Structures are given as structure tokens and as C-alpha cells.
Amino acid sequence: MAREVTVAVPRSVPPYVIPENWSGIEYEVVKRALALAGHTMIPRLTVLARLPKEMQAKEIDAAMTMRPETGVVACYSNSHVTYRNYAVSLEKNDVRVGSVADLADKSVVAFQNAHVYLGEDYARATQKAASYREEANQVVQALLLYSDRIQVVVADHNIFRWFAAEVRGKVDVTQRLRLHPIFPPTDYQMAFRDPALCAEFNQGLARLKESGEFDRIVARYLSQMENNLAQAVK
User: Fold this and answer.
1) Which pLDDT score is estimated for 116?
2) What is the pLDDT of residue 23?
3) Is residue 78 very low, low, confident or very high in pLDDT (cuts 50, 70, 90)?
4) What is the mean pLDDT of residues 186-204?
5) Do residues 185 and 114 lie in contact, with contact meaning Cβ atoms separated by under 8 Å?
6) Residue 107, strand partner residues
7) What is the pLDDT of residue 234?
8) Nearest of 138, 140, 158, 161 to residue 149 by alpha carbon
9) At 73, is the secondary structure helix, strand, or coil?
10) Helix, strand, coil tally for the chain in percent (to 5)
11) Are 88 and 131 in contact (CB under 8 A)?
């Protein structure tokens, strides 16, 4: 039966989620997968800390960008989006990061709740870092790295590049980056209160991928990101 599905959406993480105009790779994939299952998505901005209470109070039906490690009790869908985190540094500084443990003596800025998503080894290493903080507003990461006020940013490469285009008037974003591939790709899932709705989402997601629409959504936003960055460095 068709229904309106209230979905908790994280704060802005372009090109995956752009709440200013309700768009983005992940946002569109979720909306279209639900539509293919016959449902209408109703977005609701929230933060991870509020999700357990919102789920329990039935204020939301589902949440985006989730993993079981968050501790939210729900039916977790098949993975609908993959983020690829790197340790990012400026090439000119020749920072050496060959493993997560190598972050221990660096100054590091990461995305919010990185210590939850990136595992125990990461949490231990960053406890020993020269300085460590997590930023909800990831534009700060680009500002700090390009202005040489931090050694390493931990971020998804696409998110970092998107925000780099936004700070072009404040810092030199033409500086070459070094990407340290110390993290495996992170597959994210939807968390649903209703297992039946979870199963229907999985069916819609499968149809989205089989039709080729999933790949077209991803390609459109990555192209937009590259165009933004090209304009930034002119």
C-alpha cells in the first residue's frame, strides 16, 4: 500500500545530501527507490544523536546514511550508497600516513561521528593525535587544510572536493592533494522501523540499479562537482 515515508536526513553532505534544495546522490537514490516501491518520501532534517528517540516515538519511519554500529535499533536495508574516506594532506607538506595508526602524532580534523563510523583502531589513534576534532560543517575542513592550519583531513574525497569549490575565494584550492587510502570504502544503509517497508525499499533499490538510473544519478552529481571545481580554479 502506498504511503508517505518520513525519512530522517543528515545535515548537508554534498554531493550526497544537499538539503538546501532537497537533492544529492544519496537523497535522490533513496527518493527514487521508495518511489519505485510505490511510496512518497517526506524528508526531515535531524542529527544522529536524536535518531533513537525519534524512532522510538515513531516520529520518523526511516533514516538515511546509517550503519548498525550507530546502535539505532532498526531493520537495515541493502547498501544504497558507498562513501570513500581518505586521510587527505597537502602534497607540499609530504605528510606520511600509511596506516590508521600513523594519525597518532598528526593534527587531524574529521567529519562528525568519524570515531563511530571508522572503527576502534581509528578511535584509539585519534585519541593520541597531536590535536583532533570532528566538524559537522565540513567546509571548515577545506579551510583548515588549504590554509596549512591542520596536517590531515579525514573525509570522503567527493565531499572534500565539493566544499573546496566553495572556499575558493578564501584559500588557494589549486594546491595539490595527497590521498592516503587507509580506510576501506564505507557502505551505508537505510534504517527502517518497519521490516516490510525495508524489504520494499530493497526491491525499489534493485530496480533502480537494474534500470541504469542509479548510475546516471551518480554520474550527474560527480559531473556537477567537477564543473564547480573547474570554475573555482580558473
Assistant:
1) 82
2) 96
3) very high
4) 96
5) no
6) 131
7) 55
8) 140
9) coil
10) 45, 25, 30
11) no
